[in-house]
Design a protein that fits this description.
With 244 residues, the protein is of the alpha/beta class. It contains nine helices and ten strands. The protein has a single domain, classed as Rossmann fold. A six-stranded mixed β-sheet has the order 6-7-8-3-9-10, sandwiched between helices. A four-stranded antiparallel β-sheet has the order 2-1-4-5, covered by helices on one side. Helix 6 links the parallel strand 7 and strand 8. Helix 3 packs across helix 4. The chain binds adenosine-5'-triphosphate (ATP).
């Protein structure tokens, strides 16, 4: 059982892939209601962390809890409470957006899928694309329907892996607005892996920095900006944390 009040509670998590230590005794807590930006160099272990938290991967040792449930032992309870948007989300290309969502809604056991799909598309201002085939979607549209899929069952926590990757500036801005709206209006805690420091500064309430599988920094964005007030941007702060 998790002793912490944190909605995400990671305790001494280690993951080894043969010789590679991807996570080294990671401890990290994220409180309910936060928008948590998880930063780190390529290969730092961010995706590995998210894969363990979303029950896709077993840790080598250590434990992690979401809403008090153990990710290794209570996968079903976890999957009811989380949504996940991977970096490259997959769809049935020849089906429409609505048909794809219907498939995922039924998988999640949603009783009135049509109503739920309408309300999620409405929330994301995407109703007009319900009957369009995914094969005709741009990257930004795919991202939005990926979010619809990830929130169709009203999760408490949403994991986003590099959500801005491949988006143009308008797409990045639209995504930011959606993330803020999900957090504010649906009270969803967001855990976001990202390289885009400017987005972290505009969106996140708390940041964590991973370096070679270890947490080297965590604080609220506000405290971070106050503590490093002589630096002129989050980018300068990030590079001074010596993550390489
Ligand atoms: P990026 O920002 O490039 O996506 P990341 O922070 O998400 O990187 P991970 O993908 O979690 O990092 O990788 C952490 C380490 O584990 C890296 O050294 C990577 O090469 C290694 N790794 C990840 N997946 C596997 C795997 N399936 N088999 C072997 N090694 C792996």
């Amino acid at each position: 059982m998790s002793k912490s009040s944190a909605i995400i509670d990671i305790q001494s998590l280690t993951k080894k892939y043969k010789e590679t230590i991807a996570l080294n005794n990671l401890n990290l807590q994220v409180e309910r209601g936060e928008i948590f930006g998880f930063l780190g160099h390529n290969g730092a272990g961010k995706t590995t962390t998210v894969n363990i938290l979303t029950t896709l991967l077993a840790p080598t040792s250590g434990r992690a809890f979401i809403c008090g449930f153990n990710v290794e032992k209570e996968g079903l309870e976890i999957r009811k409470r989380i949504g996940y948007l991977p970096e490259n989300v997959k769809f049935y290309e020849n089906l429409t957006a609505g048909e794809n969502l219907e498939f995922f809604a039924k998988l999640s056991g949603i009783e009135k899928p049509e109503e739920k799909i309408k309300s999620v598309l409405n929330f994301l201002d995407f109703q007009k694309f319900e009957n369009k085939k995914i094969s005709q979607f741009s990257k930004g549209m795919r991202q939005r329907i990926g979010i619809a899929q990830a929130i169709i069952h009203d999760p408490e926590v949403l994991f986003l892996d590099e959500p801005t990757s491949g988006l143009d500036p308008m797409g990045v801005r639209n995504l930011r607005e959606i993330i803020l709206k999900l957090n504010k209006e649906k009270n969803i805690t967001i855990f976001m892996n990202t390289h885009l420091l400017s987005e972290v500064a505009k969106t996140c309430t708390t940041i964590g920095v991973l370096g070679h599988g270890e947490l080297i920094y965590k604080d609220t964005l506000k405290q971070t900006m106050e503590r490093f007030k002589d630096e002129n941007s989050l980018e300068t702060i990030y590079f001074n944390l010596d993550t390489k």
